[in-house]
Amino acid sequence: MTVLSPTPAAPRAAGAVRRLAGALHRRPRVRLAALLTAPLLWLVLAYLGSLAALFLSAFWTTDSFTSEVVRVWSGQNFQELVSSPVYRTVALRTVGVALAVTVLCALIAFPLAFYTARVASPRRRPLLVVAILTPLWASYLVKVYAWRLILSEGGPLDWALRPLGLSGPGYGLTATVMVLTYLWLPYMILPLHTALEQLPDNLLHASADLGARAGRTFRSVVLPMVWPAVAAGSVFTFSLSLGDYITVQIVGGKTQLLGNLVYSNVTLNLPLAAALGTVPVAVIVLYLLAVRRTGALRSL
Amino acid sequence: MNLSRPARIALRTAAGLGFAVIYLPLLLVLVGSLNPDRSASWPPPGLTLDWWAAAWANEGAREALWTSVRAGGAATAIALVLGTLIAFAVQRHRFFGREAVSFAVVLPIALPGIVTGIALNSAFGTVLAPLGVGLGLFTVIVGHATFCIVVVFNNVTARLRRLPGSYEEAAMDLGAHTFRTFRDVTFPLLRSALLAGGLLAFALSFDEVVVTTFTAGPGVRTLPLWIFDNMTRPQQAPVVNVVAALLVLLSVIPIYAAQRLSSDTAGGGRV
């Protein structure tokens, strides 16, 4: 900026700011570019670029002696993925765990959300929501750690079940499903609570006037109207379960999920890890496409 | 909906059980940090604050806390600037690729953390390493900021959507230029949304394990990484309990504050 007039510095700067503001105001395109340049550069350089490079490297291979990446185009990793029974089993198990967690989350979240949205007195509702969600957003690792203690041999769960002649499930697949359900519960409770709260009272009254009992109203009015919310919540519970490997490492015992396979291949065979990583991403994209038909994504 | 008495009682019971399941594990961590027994036996034989003192004296844990605070602070600052810029662009302008931009912001938390982690790890390795920049606190901050942007973006977008444009137009009519309007009118209206977004971004960064695992160099350990490293070491069990309890308190407070600050936003976690 070259301002040659001999005015004092402060008003001169203020004038420059004013001129710049005017110029930006007259040119919305320039203003938009000024807003977008820095964040887009960041996202493209730091994130999208590395992501693209990773998926590109899924088509490379590794030298089996030196573990060096060989940059020759080949579909070998994907061939291995499809043909190896180990990978197929793990992929199916992972999808199964994700589905089980999603169903469990919906089953547990529904009565809770129904209570906070429609049964509790209206004055206490917002407080109850905070009371439910705040602890659930506590540290991920600490929650898994807490469950590791609960499920440990001779731990609190065994101690509580002993009088009944039972014992806890210990570390393994069951423990993994339990802990993942606990972890992702808020993602199901929140959309369900919102949907149930917005359910118009007159619809429920109309249903009762027409002679429907609570059960029938629930099936024919409530469920169809909150279904998109369940679908929206399931996007998170499902996709977060697909990628998890930390919980599995901590409470899963010998259980292997896709995340663990990716993790264990990162240092030895990055192209294979990248190819394995495309599996959850592809499943999530397919799931999103399926869920989009319910109209749930618009309410995300 | 006219619920029968038994149905009401059943729902109340189910909700009560749900509350119990939500709170018990966290209470257990708090009680565990007061358990005088080194092996964390159950039920605890008594209560003591000794381990809290021991944890405070623990060099590794203290350093990890400081690293977490620095990483979270820097990532939050970057996310506040970039997230607000994108929110203004998407909310106040109509342009080609607008949907794609909002999608690109959400992508870092929509994809599994491990995919983001190894992508950043190999990119840093190939691009930054030849320039002499190894993995360290800087790369952790870059990784965290990338997925923190979305929280700020969500909060600011929600607020901008509810703000009538007439305040700004009035300011402009009275002769205020763009920057003046932002400083005197728009920013004060956005302040609580920015504070909520910042708190959530900090909490998100403070809690992150997976991306941190892949972007932290040797010697850079955040609090979650420290817990993860020491979780299976019996020798460290009491101190891990204290750090875990501290992390519950430290992460719940900003989330609670953010929820109270902005009734118009979804809240924390990875949403």
Automatic annotation (TrEMBL), chain A:
InterPro entries, per the entry: MetI-like, MetI-like_sf
Keywords: Cell membrane, Membrane, Transmembrane, Transmembrane helix, Transport
Membrane-spanning residues: 32-60, 90-115, 127-150, 170-190, 226-248, 268-290
UniProt main location, coarse: membrane
Topology in the lipid bilayer: Multi-pass membrane protein
Subcellular location: Cell membrane
GO biological process: one example: transmembrane transport
Cellular component per GO, a single term: plasma membrane
Record-annotated ABC transmembrane type-1 domain positions: 91-291
Membership in a protein family: Belongs to the binding-protein-dependent transport system permease family. CysTW subfamily.
Protein name per its UniProtKB record: Spermidine/putrescine ABC transporter permease
Organism in which the protein naturally occurs: Streptomyces showdoensis
Organism phylogeny: Bacteria, Bacillati, Actinomycetota, Actinomycetes, Kitasatosporales
From TrEMBL, chain B:
Keywords: Cell membrane, Membrane, Transmembrane, Transmembrane helix, Transport
Annotated GO biological process: transmembrane transport
GO cellular component, as recorded: plasma membrane
Domain named ABC transmembrane type-1: residues: 65-258
Annotated compartments: Cell membrane
Gene3D superfamilies, per database record: MetI-like
SUPFAM superfamilies, per database record: MetI-like
Membrane topology of the entry: Multi-pass membrane protein
PROSITE patterns xrefs: ABC_TM1
Spans through the membrane: 9-34, 71-90, 102-121, 127-153, 237-257
PANTHER family: PUTRESCINE TRANSPORT SYSTEM PERMEASE PROTEIN POTI
Protein name: Spermidine/putrescine ABC transporter permease
Organism of derivation: Streptomyces showdoensis
Lineage: Bacteria, Bacillati, Actinomycetota, Actinomycetes, Kitasatosporales
